[in-house]
């Protein structure tokens, strides 16, 4: 398996897990922030579905296969499934942390794609990372985490 395929497969797997996690949170969020978070999680799982399609199609365009099973997805993902018992704040923190981890992985993948001259993959990964940076800032603002800490969190997620 080529390194570029590994990078794209990992991201595809991550987004499949995150989409399911966001759907679970959307269905199970409770409390005073229900309406806000219910809508936000729906927005984010819709966005995740778009990333899943883009990443799978990029793999296919490169002559590779997309992940073929849920078992393969879970083997390749670096993010974890939802435990199902999180409070609304824990849900937001989990998504912010997942997105921070993905930013780090996407930046590594972008750099590698650029070194290969694969500008299409590099641009795809960069676009996803840029959107996630804004989401991490907003999710951490919701949690009351200062912006500087949110940036540190995103940049140290891969350490």
UniProtKB/TrEMBL annotation:
PROSITE patterns: DPS_1 (PS00818), DPS_2 (PS00819). Residues 6-144 form the Ferritin/DPS domain. It holds the Pfam family Ferritin. CDD domains: DPS. One of its GO terms (molecular function) is oxidoreductase activity, acting on metal ions. Belongs to the Dps family. This is DNA starvation/stationary phase protection protein.
């Amino acid at each position: 398996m080529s390194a570029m395929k590994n990078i794209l497969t990992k991201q595809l797997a991550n987004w499949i897990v995150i989409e399911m996690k966001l759907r679970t949170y959307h269905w199970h969020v409770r409390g005073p922030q229900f309406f806000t978070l219910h809508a936000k999680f729906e927005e984010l799982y819709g966005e995740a579905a778009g990333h899943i399609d883009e990443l799978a199609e990029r793999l296919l365009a490169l002559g590779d296969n997309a992940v073929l099973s849920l078992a393969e997805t879970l083997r390749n993902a670096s993010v974890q499934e939802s435990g199902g018992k999180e409070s609304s704040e824990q849900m937001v923190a989990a998504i912010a942390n997942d997105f921070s981890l993905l930013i780090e992985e996407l930046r590594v993948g972008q750099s590698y794609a650029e070194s290969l001259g694969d500008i299409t993959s590099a641009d795809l990964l960069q676009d996803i990372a840029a959107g996630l940076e804004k989401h991490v800032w907003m999710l951490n603002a919701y949690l009351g985490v200062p912006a500087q800490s949110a940036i540190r969190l995103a940049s140290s997620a891969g350490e």
